[in-house]
Amino acid sequence: MPELPEVETVRAGLERHVVGRTIDTVEVLHPRAVRRHLAGPADFAAVLRGRTITGARRRGKYLWLPVAEDALLAHLGMSGQLLVGDPARPVSAHVRARFTFTDAGPDLRFTDQRTFGHLVWAGGGAVLPPLIAHIAPDPLEPAFDEEAFIARLRLRHTGLKRALLDQSLVSGIGNIYADEALWRARLHWARATDTLTRPEATRTLSAVREVLGDALQAGGTSFDSLYVNVNGESGYFGRSLSVYGKAGQPCPRCGALIRRDPFMNRSAHSCPRCQPRPRSRRDHRDLRDRST
DNA sequence: CCTGCCGCCTGCGCGC
DNA sequence: TGCGCGCAGGCGGCAG
Description:
Layout: H1 4-17, E1 23-28, H2 41-48, E2 57-59, E3 62-67, E4 70-75, E5 80-85, E6 95-101, E7 107-112, E8 118-122, H3 146-155, H4 160-165, H5 175-185, H6 198-217, E9 259-263, E10 266-270, H7 281-291
Antiparallel strand pairs: 1-6, 2-3, 3-4, 4-8, 5-7, 6-7, 9-10
The structure holds a DNA duplex.
């Protein structure tokens, strides 16, 4: 569930609470949590024991903790949490892995109700884990190339929201912020990417950056206790949402009732007046042909 | 190559 | 009260 602002909030917490500390013990409480570590849970634990965490980095929704030239790579999936706290507190039912440190201070727990998240040892991954080479830069990192993104977006033959959710095109955006950004840009989720004008594509990117930045300022979005920072606290961007989860409620801009449409076995939320359904791709093509 | 679909999991709220 | 269903912040793998 966590998207870029939530993962960044977690990353910042890890930077503060685990960087510079040396791992003492590693317990894998659910093998699925390390399913991408092909050598298995015992190897995962063995390779991390005694290693010192030297940083906390992130690209999109992935984060990793460098240890020398290598890294511990994590993805929170839909319900993952990384929590730092008193090592003596009870181990709750959804804790999938637990790390203690040689200083006997707060431990680190990977909690994940739905087990879509995972941890994996990323050899040679301190700067950028090879396992996530297919993940595009996110819009808040220096490596993000605005011109390249706009060009690639307009070359896609798909719907606009689909494209925003494609982590190999731009990373960090999930279902909440895709809907919120499209509302801010006044564009419909089904708009064909190959009919976007350059200004529309630029507007989309600006809206994405704004909504991610605003959410980050607020410490992320929490609907419930499933998304929390490393200290177990919720972010408060939820109160700033305009369309996500607001079906039947008035659009904050024009008052029309927000609609929810089925989309990729999930949902797309939009304002029917601010974000009118696009003309068919055919109409766009005709229009373009006529104007050139 | 690109695009789209499917499965992977648990838990909650809803209508019957 | 119980039960089935739909829904939930995401990804990798694979087919066409």
